[in-house]
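Input structure tokens:
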């Protein structure tokens, strides 16, 4: 966490739009000490920048001690970059403009809403867009929902309206988010939470699910809905060591 803060502060000093995303970003929005039932290890630092600042962000990372992966970065120019702090055994993943794994989540247009991380709605979407939810992603999802209510804004709130609008335009994202919300509710009992905490998380997930369902769907969404699950609706994300 200290290293993640150092990187974002160095970017701010250089007026480079660079924000944290992923598990560490969710942790930074949580309570001072991690919830005992939701604590986990972090294997890398995930960042996102705008397309116009891609080169500046990469140069900054190298200047503060990171080594670029030349073959991966060249192959993924304008999309994603990998950097290493070999001395401390750290890997850094830099996303450009969008977060793209199972689904593509737009980021750049709302990058300035928070000085350190992407907004809470985007943070939650990076977890809900995962087709095969694992233990760490489940804990991240629950930690974020437990600490923040659903609403229409972005100040200490998960902007459910924004999530619903994105899902209303993209059937595949809607389908995966719906599945992830259901699975998170089902898997809650496997976590070391109090009955009251489980109730809070379930109620907030219901609020989010209802907002997503109530949002008027685009014509493109309706056409894709006719096909349903007969055709795969997500990408298989690339794992990089």
């Amino acid at each position: 966490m200290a290293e993640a803060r150092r990187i974002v502060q160095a970017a701010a000093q250089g007026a480079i739009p660079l924000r944290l995303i992923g598990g560490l970003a969710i942790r930074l929005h949580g309570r001072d000490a991690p919830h005992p039932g939701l604590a986990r290890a972090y294997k890398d630092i995930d960042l996102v920048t705008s397309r116009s600042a891609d080169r500046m962000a990469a140069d900054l990372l190298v200047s503060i001690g990171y080594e670029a992966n030349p073959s991966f970065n060249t192959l993924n120019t304008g999309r994603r970059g990998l950097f290493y702090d070999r001395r401390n055994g750290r890997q850094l993943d830099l996303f450009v403009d969008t977060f793209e794994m199972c689904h593509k989540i737009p980021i750049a247009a709302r990058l300035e809403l928070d000085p350190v991380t992407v907004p809470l709605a985007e943070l939650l979407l990076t977890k809900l867009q995962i087709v095969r939810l694992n233990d760490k992603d489940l804990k991240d999802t629950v930690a974020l929902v437990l600490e923040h209510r659903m609403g229409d804004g972005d100040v200490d709130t998960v902007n459910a309206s924004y999530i619903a609008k994105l899902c209303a335009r993209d059937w595949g994202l809607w389908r995966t988010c719906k599945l992830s919300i259901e699975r998170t509710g089902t898997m809650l009992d496997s976590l070391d939470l109090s009955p009251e905490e489980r109730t809070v998380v379930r109620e907030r997930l219901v609020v989010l699910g209802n907002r997503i369902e109530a949002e008027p769907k685009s014509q493109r969404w309706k056409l894709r809905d006719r096909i349903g699950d007969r055709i795969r609706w997500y990408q298989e994300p690339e794992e990089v060591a």
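The chain has one domain: 2-230. The chain has a mean pLDDT of 96.
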